[in-house]
Amino acid sequence: KQFLTLTGNVTDVHFRFPAISGNFTCVILQDGTGGRTVSNWKSNDSDGTERTLKWAGGATPENTETANKADIVSFYWDAPAKIAYGVYTYNF
Questions:
Q1: Which helix (H) or strand (E) holds 35?
Q2: How far is CA 47 from the centre of its chain?
């Protein structure tokens, strides 16, 4: 589980997953200013090799930009297949 407060625009968010499968969660929080964006989402295996990241519905999500609002990103990491399956929940 991770918590990330956006204090500026982010070009890449990298999730590095372990050598075993599991469920992982990250809360993305806008700071008091808001308007912060995330351009790219990356997935890496335990060795640091970039791997496939698939989003529910097939589209890469755009984060909530309202000040002090949070989004929750949930992943199932399939270690043998080296694929991260992501679901994005908005605007808490």
A1: none
A2: 19
Low-confidence ranges of the chain (pLDDT < 50): none
Q: How far apart are CA 37 and CA 48, in angstroms?
A: 24
Q: Whose structure tokens read 């075993």?
A: 20
65 half-sphere exposure, CB direction, 13 A CA radius:
10
Q: How many of the other CB atoms lie within 10 Å of CB of 42?
A: 13
- In this structure, the dihedral spanned by the alpha carbons of residues 59, 34, 26 and 18, taken in order and rounded to 10 degrees, is 80
Output the DSSP codes for 19-68.
Answer: SS-EEEEEEEEE-SS----EEEEEEE-TTS-EEEEEEGGGS------STT
Contact 33, 61 (CB under 8 A): no
Which tokens sit at 74? Answer: 């949930």
Whether residue 18 contacts residue 37, with contact meaning beta carbons closer than 8 Å, is answered with no
